[in-house]
Please model this.
Amino acid sequence: MSPYVESIITLLMINSIAAMGVSLLTGFTGIFTLGHSAYMALGAYTTAILYMGHSVPWAIAIFAGAAFAMLVAWLIGVPTLRLMGDYYAIASIGLAESIRLIIANWQSLTRGARGYPDISKFATFNVTLAFFLVMGALIFLLIHSRYGRAFKACRDDHVAASLLGYNTARYRVLSLVISAFYCGIAGGLLAGFLQYLKPDMFDMLKSTELTAVVVFGGMGSMSGCLLGTTIITLVTELFRPISQYRMLIYGAVLVIIMVLRPEGLLGRYELGPRLLRHLFGRKTPEGTEGRG
Amino acid sequence: MGALLEVKDMNKFFGGVQAVADMSFTLEKGELMGLIGPNGAGKTTIFNLITGVYPLSSGAVFFRGEEITGGKTYDIVKKGIARTFQNLRLFGASTVLENVMTACQQHYPYSFLEAISHLGRWKSQEKNIRNKSMELLERVDLAREAHRAAGTLPYGHQRRLEIARALALQPELLLLDEPAAGMNPDEVMNLNELIQKIHSDFQLTILVIEHHMELVMEICPHILCMNFGAKIAEGDPDHIQGHREVLKAYLGEDEEEASA
Model:
């Protein structure tokens, strides 16, 4: 594999880890977010500062970064997720902007807007692959467990869920904290891959991209968000030579998918026989297949 | 014998409207009680107050002698009260089986670590959840539809699925909110049998809201009739059928009487 292809795949895997976190929150629990780049930023900067500034081994620094992201998610989730509706989405915009501005202005700790340079590389292809495979497997196992059913119950009808004995606020916070963990790890890996961080990497555009890949991969489909991430990352890379038109093409791809497949590329299905039967087979009577 | 459910001086105001007025009744363990009344009488509101969906304006609710007034819905449910909804609240996109499993799994817990690793108790508990849920689906005659999306079921089947999902919580008290609404006479007859069967098989105490008079009169030895939020009569079917106030509530006032 050429170094270029390898680096694209590494970046793709890092973005996928973050997208899986957002997919759990938005696709499976039904909570919209427009600020998940904040958790990536927290993970990335914590990892960089501990690793470079305090000589903490990177494997520990990266989990410390994710833990910090989880803590912040918990603090903001507890008051906002008790309320139904889009309160969290609004709070998440504020959170992301605040975190970005704090990072940009706390010169002594984060080196401010000029960025955090010269981070030793630790997120090699193999390290990233290992993180991607383990974290991918864990989240697939999680959604195929009692927790997955509980999240979906909170998403589909929170009144019915609470009348089945679920403390919906707790499950919503749990989903947010797990998604912050995924974004925190992705951020840490990004620091060790790019070897350079700056606050602008974690702006509103990054947050919307994370939510966009989930929506057009298919809400409630974990493999859908991987497919979505792949397409967006490839579009961004393929059109790098005409980079001034990249955002235009990115926008066009989003619009085309929204028009042709409003339920997302995979809908609620995972990549597998059920999806194929849904797309191509009409032998079974309408609607008899299960949906996840 | 102590009452399983006791409602004491329950009041509920929505702004200036009194939806429930000084309602009191008790439900003995093992009873099958009917709650009737014209549309808008406040029957569903009583269910919402018992299960903590709305807070009471005043009064108290006791379950097994313990006060549950003001409790959180999920806590009250865990104490052993399950209910169905007048306007179905199934998880429409999930399969029939998953709907029941979502309720059933409350009694077969395993830890978060077991959930993300599929190790430990995961396998055995998931099997228990699945088997128990299939068993319940067989009871309500929906086992054949197990893998169908719940929202695509015919209306009558969806109502039976809601009952199965409520039973999966293994409640002591089951609140059925108009289980026969939208059903044809055949389906009502089947439902009739189903309610009586689960009542005896699961040793359940059941409180049922119903508009089908034949159904209530046939299966409920104890009936409470309400109108405008207040109790107007309580007793056995004969007592209710002969009660002046009940006839008035349903049929309107006699002209001579009104002028008298």
About this structure: Chain A has a mean pLDDT of 89. Chain A has 13 helices and no strands.
